[in-house]
């Protein structure tokens, strides 16, 4: 059994609760589908914890913005958060981000951040037709912050959802597990108010963190109620 996490985005408070749940399941092997960094204030705490646990991670778009000293062309908010993290990230953690691969293949499971056309920044719309053009059977990606599990018969796709910033109407941190054949989706509550306090201490106002209370983007909700644990 392995743990699957994604889109932590510097939210160490949420990551701590997810890792507690994973530990209680007796899982030691954890894979991250990208975006360790971005948005929230504890990028070093997150990177330190993943490195200590030897979590295998792919590079997400936010990780790339920091690792390549780049920026996001879509969002002023993202760039302000990334600029803050560029100032505080340690040299060791920066080197770790720069070392992350675009793709991980483990025991027949293919992991990217975005999609298999653009591993870093593709907003994947999974379908049978899409995966007919991708070799393999089991697939994991993040990036959308929406937890999803779809069985296409001979191919199975899983988005474990976002640890640090869910956008599917459920404010609980999301993750998944995989036993080599079956995925399970999980949610765990965390103290999102603490994240807000840490952001305020870092100089950010409520606009940057209030979405955590509703599990949505700034500009609207997905309308989905709390998702239930699911298996395929």
Query: CATH top level?
Result: Alpha Beta
CATH level-four homologous superfamily name: Metallo-dependent phosphatases
* Structural class computed from helices and strand pairing: alpha/beta
Question: Average pLDDT across residues?
Answer: 93
Estimated share of beta-strand residues: 15-25%
> How many domains make up the coordinates?
1
Unreliable sequence segments? 219-232
CATH topology: Purple Acid Phosphatase, chain A, domain 2
**Level of helix content?**
25-40%
Biggest sheet overview: 5 strands, mixed
Provide the descriptors you would attach to this structure in a database record.
232 residues; alpha/beta; Purple Acid Phosphatase, chain A, domain 2; five-stranded mixed β-sheet; disordered C terminus
Notes on the structure:
The protein is α/β, with parallel strands linked by helices and 232 residues long. The protein has a single domain (2-213), classed as Metallo-dependent phosphatases (Purple Acid Phosphatase, chain A, domain 2, 4-Layer Sandwich). The protein has seven helices and ten strands. It has helices at residues 12-24, 43-52, 61-67, 76-88, 91-99, 128-132, 192-201, and strands at 2-5, 30-32, 56-57, 104-106, 109-111, 138-140, 148-151, 156-159, 173-178, 183-188. The strands form two sheets. Strands 3-2-1-9-10 form a five-stranded mixed sheet. A five-stranded mixed sheet has the order 4-5-6-8-7, with no helix packed on it. β7 and β8 form a beta hairpin. α3 packs across α5. The model is unreliable at 219-232 (pLDDT under 50).
């Amino acid at each position: 059994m392995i743990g699957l996490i994604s889109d932590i985005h510097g939210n160490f408070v949420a990551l701590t609760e997810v890792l507690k749940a994973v530990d209680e399941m007796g899982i030691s092997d954890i894979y991250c589908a990208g975006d360790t960094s971005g948005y929230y204030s504890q990028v070093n705490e997150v990177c330190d914890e993943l490195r200590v646990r030897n979590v295998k991670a792919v590079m997400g778009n936010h990780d790339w913005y920091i690792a390549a000293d780049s920026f996001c062309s879509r969002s002023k908010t993202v760039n302000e958060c990334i600029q803050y993290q560029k100032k505080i990230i340690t040299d060791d953690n920066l080197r770790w981000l720069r070392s992350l691969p675009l793709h991980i293949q483990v025991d027949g499971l293919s992991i990217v951040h975005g999609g298999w056309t653009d591993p870093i920044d593709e907003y994947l719309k999974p379908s049978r037709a899409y995966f007919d053009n991708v070799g393999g059977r089991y697939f994991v990606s993040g990036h959308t912050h929406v937890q999803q599990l779809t069985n296409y018969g001979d191919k199975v796709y899983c988005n474990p959802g976002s640890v640090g910033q869910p956008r599917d109407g459920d404010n609980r941190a999301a993750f998944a597990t995989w036993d080599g054949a079956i995925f399970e989706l999980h949610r765990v509550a965390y103290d999102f108010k603490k994240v807000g306090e840490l952001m305020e201490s870092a100089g950010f106002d409520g606009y940057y963190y209030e979405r955590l209370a509703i599990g949505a983007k700034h500009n609207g909700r997905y309308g989905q109620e709390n998702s239930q644990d699911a298996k395929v």
